[in-house]
Hints:
single chain, mainly alpha, about 75% helix, globular
Amino acid sequence: MTVITDPLFYVVAIPAVMFLGLSKGGFSSVGMVATPLVAIVMGPLEAAALLLPIILIQDAVSVWVYRRTWDPWNLKVMIPGCVIGVGAAWLLAAYVSDGVIRLVVGLIALGLVSYTFLRHRLPGETARPRASHGVFWGALSGFTTTLIQIGAPPYYAFVLPQRLEKMVYVGTTVMFFAAANTMKIVPYFALGQFSTQTLGTSLVLLPFAVASNFVGLWLARRTPTELFYKIAYVLMFLISLGLIWQGIAALPG
C-alpha cells in the first residue's frame, strides 16, 4: 500500500481533515470546507473518496452513540430521495470531465454559502412538511454530498423547521448521513476513485481527524461557535471561487 507523497497535498489535506474532525467534535458546519479544500490539489471525486473512509469510521461511532435516538418518519421520506440524488451525481460524474465537476462543485459551494446568508429571507418548510418535500430535499442532499461531501444545507432546510427535540434531531442527522455516506461507496468504486494509494493516505490522515475531533469537543465548551462558522464560510467562499476558476480554465476552448 502506497501513500501520496506530494508535500503540497498535505499542506491542504491536513487542515481539511482537521476541519472534518472539528465538525464531529461539535462544530458541525466547519466540516464542509474539507472536500473543496482537498479538491484544489486533486480531482473533486478523488478528494471525496479519500475522505470517505475517515468519515465512515466517525459515522460508525456516532451511530452507536445515537442508535436509540432518531426520528423514523424523516428517514423514511428523505433516504429514498437521497438514493436518487446519489444516483444522479454518479451519472453526472461518469460522463463529464474533472474540469466540469470542479466547476459544478465550485458553483454548488458558492450557492450553499449564499444560501446560508440568505436563508432567513427565503420561504422555508412548515413545522409539518409534506413527505414529497422530504424526498426532494433528500435528493438534493444526496447529490451535493456525493460530489462535494456537503449535504447538510438541504437537509437542514427540511428538518430544522420541524423543531425536533435536540437529541432526536442530532440522532436523526447522524443516521441520515451515515446512510448517505454508505451509499457513496459503490459509486466511488464504480468511478475508479478508490485505490491503494488513496486508502493508504486516508489511514495516514486518520490520526489528525481523530485528534481534532477531541480538540473540537474541548473547544466547543470554550470557544464561540459563531467564530468558527464565520471562518469556515469565508474559506468556503474563497475555495469555491478557486474551483470555479479552475473549472472554467479546464473547459475546451
